[in-house]
Model the fold of this input.
Amino acid sequence: MAVTDPHTTNVPTLPAHSDPDTDGVLDSGLLHELSYAFGGPFHFLLPHRFDNNLAAFRTVLGDAGVDGRVYYAKKANKAAVWMERCAAHQAGVDVASVGELREALGHGVRGENVVVTGPAKSDELLRLAILQGCLVAVDALDELDLLITLALTGVVSPARLLLRRLPPTQPHSRFGMNAGELETALDRCVRAGDAVRMEGFSFHLSGYATQPRTELAAELVDLCLTARVRGLQADRISIGGGFAVDYSSAEHWHTFLADQRPEHYHARKTFQHGDFYPYHSPVSGADALSTILAAVPEGGHTSLAGRLKETGTLLMMEPGRALLAGAGSTVFCVQGVKDRDGYRIVTVDGTSLSLSEQWFNSEYLPDPQLVTSTGRPSGSDTHPTCVGGASCLESDMVTWRKIPLPVRPRTGDLLVYPNTAGYQMDSNESPFHDLPLPPKVVLDHLGDRPRWRLDRRPAC
Done:
């Protein structure tokens, strides 16, 4: 019987974009078998979607006539399969730790295709990066001094580097160097001679706006020209990541924001609109790159693409979430259901640590889909349901929001959260309560009967 409480019946919904690949997996019958086999939550991965996203970025570069390279931001998802795909397609990888660098190298990514970012890198990370011919994005003057010292003391020479620019529009960022520090850094690179190969400049902007990226990229091109006059190579720039992913339609997103109220959340939990990821973006993924390249910097007469071509400057980018769009989902099994004041509280077999948006004081909003033993139910009834984790913490809510499910959920049903590969699956994972970390299942062949394998096979 459907809930009829007027305060909870008309709960807002945020359906994700329809995705035939994911729908095929949900309708295949495989997920219940895997849930039974693993005895807990798990994630399934679609590597061909990563390949498609990578190809889309490369197509934009080709269409614009721009020499460019795509580096996958490894922090977005720990799965080994993404390293396999980067190696297979000669794509780059962006790493920020010794562990990430070893993981990339161990799966066949060549050192020359790795860029090492992050603040205050350790001696060990810099030494390994130099030995493997990686490109290091230098964040500060003391880091530059350490890199030069390592290169001069018998590690390997030269050390390849970019100088990271502090965004003038985000002066309170803790990353990058201001104009004065960059001037000092250039002097030190010149004095270091053959010990270093200063290949250009980089930045990373918070947010997803495209025009600020065009503006700062144009500034970096000018910096490259200045550096070349001093005898430095300076033939490339990196614009970092920040390519949005479009999860839901504009209509659904704006309606959701307008309609949601505290009573639509368990315990009247409140979130500020600004705390939510922008689940709709009119320009996303490779289209955002196209927009950045086509825009004309303020005061200029040539598009960024034209500026890159006329100066012979290579464009680097480090997308994470955008390469993982549509490339995976998260599956929980319902362990219990209780009725509570006109809605239901479902407890699943995992915790909110396996859906990481709460790390950002937020919530993952795209509606999960209910999959019963007979498939995905449909109907016009509304069964508002929030989702709690299996821990003994009040705050362990996978979804505070009361999701409008079409039928009453039952023990053994599955809840599938769509499009979670980018930053959601494992950024915040923890074996709390001695619960095992959810395994990742790679689906190599779709169809009526998908073929699957574990992302990381257990050691013999």
Remarks:
- The radius of gyration is 24 Å.
- The domain at 6-46+326-452 is CATH 2.40.37.10 (Lyase, Ornithine Decarboxylase; Chain A, domain 1).
- Residues 221 and 237 are 7 Å apart (CA to CA).
